[in-house]
User: What shape does this take?
Amino acid sequence: MAVTAHAALGSLIGHTNGVTKRYAVANGATVYVNEFVYLDAAGRVTSASIAGVRLLGQVVAADTENMDRAYADNAVGNAGGTVKVLVNIDPEERYLLKNDNVGTTFAVAHQGQYFDLVGNPGSQLVDTSTVTTSGQLVCLEFNPGIRGTDATYGIFKIAERQLEL
Assistant: This one.
């Protein structure tokens, strides 16, 4: 089985059942399973211009209104708001994420550091050039040795959550 760039690993407190909620997808926006999203001004989820925004969570299922069809890895929002996705909003969730290694090579020294996401919908990566004392994500572990991963992967937690003050 191939490892994707994003995967939920379960909670920091040990449970594996995430807290999820259905949200309508922003009109015209495409969101993909396993990518991070935020709520736009209309209260719908999107992943457009993801860098630097407070994160709602990770999409875990697409097209939740039409469950009798084949698996979908993405959903495209419509004006009526009838296209919905299931989003993991668990504040303690940990994520296995791939880094872009552009500008800065991901290293063990990045544990405890903060990063932003970069990339277009469907191709999000952790932006290693944004290492700082604040950011969307905090690195919990470098190169966890999970099968199918390499030194470009780490375990992260959302640091800047949209549902928190």
Q: What stands out?
A: The mean pLDDT is 87. The CA atoms of residues 8 and 95 lie 5 Å apart. Residues 93-158 form one domain. The chain has two domains: 16-88, 93-158.
